Amino acid sequence: QQLPGVKVLVLTTYDGDEWLFDALRAGACGYLLKDSDGDAIVAAIRGAVADEVHLDPHVAGKVLREFNRALEESSAAPARSAPSSGAGEPLYETLSERELAVLQELAQGRSNQEIAATLFLAEGTVKNYVSTIMAKLHANDRTQAAVYALKRGLAKLE
Hints:
The structure is a single chain. The chain has helices at 17-25, 38-49, 57-76, 97-107, 112-119, 123-137, 142-151, and strands at 9-12, 30-33, 54-55. By secondary structure, it is mainly alpha-helical.
């Protein structure tokens, strides 16, 4: 987190929750187990350069379970109003239809490449949309944008 331009991809034998979540909290852009095949490791390295997150399928389930647990906890908390654009409208109302479609795909954990294929867009166009979405929602990263969408019912986990 102190060097935002540096990408950290963890390749380890440890799949325990503490190791995983400590690495992600510290800013790791991926977490792979050493038994991952070479193609997965190469894809994760390339993905890290493209600001994509890569998780070993074994640990991805843990991340989703923790995310759902946190989402349930926050749902039980008293409701807060959605941040607004300053004009009185919630931030998500400033999103175009296409930006909303990209946000819904992003909330599913899809990479820019996957979103591009699904929505028939160029990958660079998706990257631009993601940047615009993050700016409009005041999100620091893709995860914050995804959580925003899920909390407000703009997207649902498939």
